[in-house]
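Worked Example 4.2. Consider the chain below.
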Amino acid sequence: MNTMALSFVDEAAALLGSRGFTQDSELIEPWLTDWRGRYTGAALGLASPVTTEEVSRLVGLCAKHGVPIVPQGGNSGMSGGATPDESGRALILSLRRMNAIRGLDEQSRQVTCEAGTVLQTLHEEAAKHRLRFPLTLGGKGSATIGGLISTNAGGTQVLRHGTMRAQVLGLEAVMADGSVMDTLTPLKKDNRGFDLKQLLIGSEGTLGIVTAATLRLLPEIGGRCVIWAGLASLIQARELLLHCEALAADELEGFEVIPSHCLDAVLDYLPDAREPLGGRHPWHALIELVAEPDRVDGLQPLAETMLAAAMEKELLEDAAIASNESQADAFWLLRDSISPAERAIGPAMQHDISVPVATMAQFVEHASPLIEARFPGTRAVAFGHLGDGNVHFHVLAPKDAVRGEWEEGQGKEISAFVHDLVTQWRGSISAEHGIGQMKRDELGRLGDPVSLSLMQAIKHALDPRGLLNPGKLVPLAKGDSNA
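Applying the procedure from the previous section yields the following structure tokens:
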């Protein structure tokens, strides 16, 4: 370790104390590998501040000594966006100790919480006040608010409520020089130039470090109706979605599609899981209707009318309405367990893609056979948020594939082919998981040149030394070695 690094370590330790800064390899090791196990790096140390003031001063130290910073929340990201490189020069900046809920206003339906607040904790706090935060996902027990903002996360309620970007009313963030941007107070109308908080949402910690946010809340639901439907095709699922949107309108909160392969994988993975329907179906749809307390009595009749009309139009093969909350939770557990169930099967290349909503079903039916023919032994499966034009498009490896080797070889070729197809269909190679380090080069290869140059210019303006989450999200400009 050189003299400058030693000086930084001494100053950081003095600033944060033994609980706030460590170089203990055993304490750091769990945070050096991403959730999927694809990336492992090294770090100069692990910093865990407890206040925005400490983050500000720490970032100032990093700027002074030229120490790169890798912000990290729950370390549950899907694109390697919170994992340091192998150089060991970077500092992991954990926001997990900054988990206070600073205030909740029932009348304005707003909550201000710190970046390390776990999503499930926020759900529970809102429920105490008969309110709810309208974003959820399978990793809600570990995902943090700061991470969700930094990746502009989606989840299963985007169909009705939008992504994380739509939930953020105000933001507090520490910039690359240690200065603090405070726009936490939300205003209905504010025409003072650029909406800077929107610039930071989805920036994956490359422009600033989110330390707190003011978020919108909604009234608690009075009840929900969860439906599992069996379908003949994804095209039929699209027609069923349009039917549900027409009849249920704002009561339609979720519409997820699941192929039979994914359902079978989950049933093998979860020992107590049961198939929702009696017969076999190529595709399945998980549909959730919700209503506020004064409209809950009409929810069950609405679901029954909607399904009866769908049957008459031959938009589904079979369906079951959850008879109670336990069964509704069981339906959703099947959906939420797809990723770990597939990971247990073997290696796969996971693609988080979107195309225009109206063409998603056609895209999947077009792309899947092309991929399986070009890469014999693979299996293409798509599942997820059909109503958002976003599916998780996974390509499962051949049975004899060696985990680790296959992903770095044929797997990369597959991903490039998938991304080419998505681009041809005017879609996005990242719908809700972010770019991170996994897709940075692909973004550089396929992205609109003007958009890329603007991203690079903004990055250079706000972080001229490239210290904030280097090597993530923003493709390098030609001749630029400052990752």
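The CA atoms of residues 341 and 448 lie 36 Å apart. Residues 346-424 form a domain with the Alpha-Beta Plaits fold (CATH 3.30.70.2740). Compare this with Example 4.1 before moving on.
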